[in-house]
Amino acid sequence: MIKNNIILFFMLCMSIFCMPVYGNELQQKNVNMVFVVDCSNSMNFNDKQNLSGELIKLFTDSAFSNTNVGLVLYDDTILQSVPLGSASDKTAVENIQQKVQSMIRKGNTDIGLALKEAVNLLPEGEQQQNIIILFSDGETDLKASKTGRTMQQSYDDESYACTKAKQTNTNIFTIGLSRTGNLDTSYLQKIAEQTGGKSYTLQQSSQLSELFQNIYCDAIGGNVNTIDHFAGSGNYQKQINMINGFADSSDIIIHTQHGIKDITTDCKNSSITYSENYAVIKVYEPSQYVVTIQFNIPQNDNITVQTIHHITVLPKIEQIQNNALLHLPVTVKLYQTDTAQVITDKKLYENMTGELTVTDTKTGEKQKITMGNAGNAMLASFENSNPKQYRFEATVKNGLYQRKTTPYDIELSNTLPYTTEKKEINLLQKKQTQQIDLNQYFKDDDGDTLVYQTENTDCNIDKNILFVDTEKEQQKQVSLYVSDGRGGVITEMLTFHILPFWIYYKNVALIILLLFIALLLFYLFVIRKRTQPQQQIQQEQPIFSGETIFSNAVFEGYFLSTLSGNEIPVLNWGASYIDNKKSITLGELFHILDVTEKLPEAHKIYIGAGKNGTVLFYHDTDCVITCKGRDIPKKKKEILQYEDKVYITFEDNVTEIELRYKRKRKRY
Fold first, then answer.
1. Beta bridge partners of 68
2. Cα–Cα distances in angstroms (integers) from residue 612 to residues 543, 545, 579, 583, 646, in the given order
3. How far apart are CA 480 and CA 492, in angstroms?
4. Half-sphere exposure for 667 (CA within 13 Å, toward CB)
5. What angle do CA 613, 619, 622 make, to 5 degrees?
6. In whole angstroms, what is the distance from residue 655 CA to residue 546 CA?
7. Are strands 128-136 and 170-177 parallel, antiparallel or unpaired?
8. 303 vs 122, 234, 393, CA distance in Å?
9. Which of 140, 273, 275, 381 is 20 to 30 Å from 490 by CA-CA measure?
């Protein structure tokens, strides 16, 4: 396995120098959130319960260590502007929470002014994820404003804010507040859509849990998992699943309409924050798989229990080795952010789904491809039918986890077809037309289906078959246009020499004649001179006496992974499949068992009969093959005993198989 590690290290080094990197691929982005709250007079009615303050408090109470929060309070002026501070700074969080709980609402509304202030609080950089959450009950209103600002000035500021938001990768999410639900949200929707955000409405406290879940998922890209929702009263006890070892903290959020207190938990490394409509249990560095919580439910209350796990794992698109393949394999694996090591624990992959987004960097056109789950990686195949510059991004998620990869830019290409055989071909003269399989003479390494055309009027082509008239002895030249269907075209000339029987087979006849002469000389000068009969040479008995050489041999094959992503069941092969053979290649074995993976090197891996129930293993490939904890070198025989295991990593560096040698028990 040392060789495997060296190969992986080399591939990692190559990926650092060869593929574009957007910051640190395995570094968690900083989440910067600025809350922009309308404090105009109308909000005294439309946000009478201060649900905006309650939602902001929930976001800050459940924020993780990589989150920074800021605040803008506005009417037709900027009332308060709080710069970004770390969510792990208790003083900074309490300052924001105190300000949103004690807002004085009066005056008119100037949304453009507030958005301009908010975008100027946000930093730039590829490792920043910037979010603005705007709370308002409607459009800008400056009719009675004493500031002297005009509507056009406000709209200009809004345009400036949206432009800068796009430049700084900032998404603006808007929340329309209304007690009656009678709200014109078109203006708020316009602002959100311009910056890649979304627009929501908030009318009553019962919507807080669902709204929090939607915004958290849409804005931050994380998962809020609703694990319980019920109405009732009395004692409540629940076991909550944690992600042991893969999260630096987890939040358990209990939403309530009537308030809740006296929550108990068996997790010592935790803290509990209470508010009017919720409670947050923050579990630091979860070290257990289950946390038990218990509390009393207020009479006739509706309870929703949610969890958020700050998982220290990021997905990454593995480097694409051959950017010219027609069916381009794309692999996404999970990595631990603190160690940059690939995750081998399959628990995180359970029930995981993925979507690959491929963007044409010139036109912006996008394709969505559903990814398959291989148990230890997410796989997709992109049809490289139009090679150009693309950007690959993948989103993977399951019930506990949702993350997006760093963008992977790649210039896809296409290699030309080429000739594989001699261009001058001898054909036996016949009265009928002969068929030539052109795929024997032309190949394409990208997996493209080749298309053939000719201008010769005396020849026809059907797909890959060339029909040649061979009735007359002659030399015929055929000009061919060979296309791979993706812009790759070559022109080649094949020359056919149509020969009569005696010329076509003259080399064969000469060889037969020479062989006959050699046998005759051997008989005359060796066999006839023997005066004593030679003892008959005893042939070595096969490894299983009295039976076919391999008849008691059994092999089992387990495909651990494949380049195509196909799942191949366990292979069982008893040697009774073949007769009178002393050896077989792994490629022949695959053919017997209908394994269709493209592994040409398998035909250079040999299994032969040994002595005393052993099997000889030999290969002439660049595969990585190990047995008994050591590599099997190229062109060196290895003796396999009963129950020995051979691990083969094929030349594509992805497909891997475990081959076990067994022996049937004899029946007496």
1. 32, 86
2. 6, 10, 19, 16, 20
3. 5
4. 0
5. 150
6. 38
7. parallel
8. 36, 12, 37
9. 381
